[in-house]
Amino acid sequence: MTPPPTPDLTDLADADLLRLDHQVCFSLQAASRAFGGVYREALRDLGLTYPQYLAMMVLWEHGPLPVKTIGERLHLDSGTLSPLLKRLESAGLVRRERSAEDERSVMVHLTDAGTGLHDRALPVPRTILRATGLSVEEILALQKTLGRLTASLGKA
Is residue 64 part of a domain? Predict the structure, then answer.
């Protein structure tokens, strides 16, 4: 059975555009919630939440960084990032210390336990890729499209 054709949204009346099925933000939210469930399962054995996993990925990739840089990289404000880093510190995965050069800046360093968690996290991306049901090419195209969308919305 062939799926019904996708409507050209520019041809729809305003009332039709107001339908939930036509909201790209809703599709993104639903996909995000679905990703959250898959990540919860994939990260369970690591003892990390998805936002904590993202912070750890930044540190695994770049090494010690100022809190501000981590926030910029993850698009998180300090009110969201600080408690997240405190929980990672309480878990013994990172340590935070004031910069010797600038006391206003706090540097985040991986502990030995945090560095050791890297190898245990290696299967996570493939687990997520398999769960999407998309090819690598489709994932890359989607990331490119979402990057453009994020940039456009940031300017709006």
Answer: yes
Which range marks the domain in which residue 72 is found?
36-122
Residue 135 lies in a domain: no
pTM of the model: 0.85
Please state, in angstroms and rounded to a whole number, the distance separating the CA atoms of residues 49 and 40: 7
pLDDT in tens, the chain (156 residues): 666 666 676 777 888 888 888 889 999 999 999 999 999 999 999 999 999 999 999 999 999 999 999 999 999 998 999 999 999 999 999 999 987 777 788 999 999 999 999 999 999 999 999 999 999 999 999 999 999 999 999 998
Exposed/middle/buried for 70, CB within 10 Å: 0-12, 13-18, 19+? buried
Question: Do the domain assignments include residue 141?
Answer: no
Q: Is residue 17 part of a domain?
A: no
Paired tokens of 87: 């929980």
CATH number at 55 reads 1.10.10.10
